[in-house]
Structure formats: C-alpha cells, structure tokens
C-alpha cells in the first residue's frame, strides 16, 4: 500500500486524491446548505435587496432573516455563503472601508439566479424542495437496494405497495403539486434552449407532442411557429386539467396503445428516459404507424457519454441516470442506444440534429 507521501508526489493542488475523497465523504453538506439557503430565502433576498450594486454583505442579508439579531449570526451566515460561493452559486469579493477593515460581499451568480423563486418557470427552487422531501431522501438512503434487488422499482421496494407515481397521485398532495411545478419549470428552461438550437420545426404542418403534459412546451413552439397545428397528447387524466392554448388541441389516450394520426411530425420530449427498451419500442412503433411517409419523430433527451469523465455535463447526466431508479425501467441512454431504438422501431434513418447544455440532444427518427 502506497504512503501518503507517494500520493502527494503524484498529484497537486485541487486534484489531490485526499481532497477529492474527503469532499465526496462530506458531499451531503452541499445539498444541506442549499436546502437551508432556499428555506431562508437567501437567493430571493439577494435578488430583491441588493440594488444596483448587486452585492450584499452577510450582515445586510442577515437583517432580512426572520430572526432577531444575535452576536454570531453574521459569522454563521458567512460560513453558509462561502460554501455556496465555492460551488459557483454566489460570487464573492472583498470590500475594504476607509479604515482598512475588510469584509466579504456576495452576489448572485448566473447559476444562483436560477434558484430565485419566480413565476416565469425559470428556477430550480421548487425542484430542490421536491428532491428533499423525506420520502424521497429516505429512498436514496437505501440506494444499495437498487443494485441488490433484481426488481427495478426502488421506491416501491423501500416504501411498500406503491410506485413513486402512484404515491404522488394518491398519498401526498403537496409533493404532487411541487413535483408538477418543478417538472414544468425544467421543461420551460429546456425548451427555450431547444428553440435556440434546433430549427427542425420549420415547415411542419401538424405536430403531436406525445406525453406533452399540460401543453406548455407545445405552446412555446407554436408561439414561435404559429403556422403549426398542434396536438397535445397525454393520458386523459392529465389533459383534462390542461389550460387552453391558441392553436393547440388536447387529446387524451395512451401512447402504449396508439398515437393519433394526421401529423407529419411527432415529438417525444424526455419520454424515452422514463421507460425500458421494450416499452420505448412499443410507443415508437405506434409513432411510426401514425406518421405518413417522410414523417419524423423528434426525440429530445439526454445523451450519455460512452465513457464518463469529470466534466459538469458528464456528472449531470450520470446523476440523472441514477435518479431514474425512481422510475421502473427508466434510464439515460447513449447515442448508440438511441440509434438502436430508431432502427429497431422500423425508422429508415437517424439524425442528431442539435445539442445543448453539452449532454442534451435533439434527434430525428425519419420514416
């Protein structure tokens, strides 16, 4: 076994194995501090109160907390802010007064701004709340069962009778609300990038969004391409609560049974990653049958690198891939996996049309 000195000779600085291992062993501190910061509305306070300078001291932030000041409040808050800054959620600089006294001041980074609670769907605040519900956290504390148990439903294994989605619909109204809000928030942010990166909606006459939920993303597409006739297709109990949008018809049904005909393009946005291959092939073949000759399926999903690395994108897709143990059969896929699904469901050609956020792809399956 090598000595500590040998380790030191082989690595330097922030890449030292000791620091990497130690930080991983304490990795629970980051979500714990982020959860607390959101509960204390730190990001909202900084967004609202920072003013033109866009920076605030810990004492200024502390004055807006729902607690009476006490001697070391500012010091304790500063410790929280430093951790958030070290993970690029805040910016930090030193401010020196005329007497030479220095203090740290903090501002919202671009990533930190995504935790400001807003009504426009551009935030992760509700998503972070959702993943910290005790019933969710307790599932991950028993993660090893996902490996040891031949079954694929980790949530059901840990909590008994119900799958996660059945639990959402029957047992916890608050979690259900936060889940749907967070999924909508994610969809809005991601669809904005899709519309920037992908131009394949041009020339489409009729577009069906299979698994389109409340139709919000389809509305974003139609707003940019108003000539498109759009159909939002999802389970009857989903579309019955969907709001009315100009140019969009809501249709209830089950994609595993059939998909409505009459469209020259069908969109599957973050649908495939919820299902095992056999189910994916089932609804993809239904899409194939519903399309005319030369029609296409637009598949928007994460694309897993063949070999993982330490990049933010690779880390992101690997986290989500493991998160999908919540959904029986769900997983992220490589580009080769999607090419297999395309070929196996009878489509004639596969095209990676565009990418965004480095690991998200817009793919076309052509009939």
From TrEMBL:
GO terms for molecular function: O-methyltransferase activity; protein dimerization activity; S-adenosylmethionine-dependent methyltransferase activity. GO terms for biological process: methylation. PANTHER family: O-METHYLTRANSFERASE. This is Isoliquiritigenin 2'-O-methyltransferase-like. InterPro entries: COMT-like (IPR016461), COMT_C (IPR001077), COMT_dimerisation (IPR012967), SAM-dependent_MTases_sf (IPR029063), WH-like_DNA-bd_sf (IPR036388), WH_DNA-bd_sf (IPR036390). The active site is at residue 273. It comes from the Eukaryota. Pfam families: Dimerisation, Methyltransf_2. The lineage of its organism: Eukaryota, Viridiplantae, Streptophyta, Embryophyta, Tracheophyta.
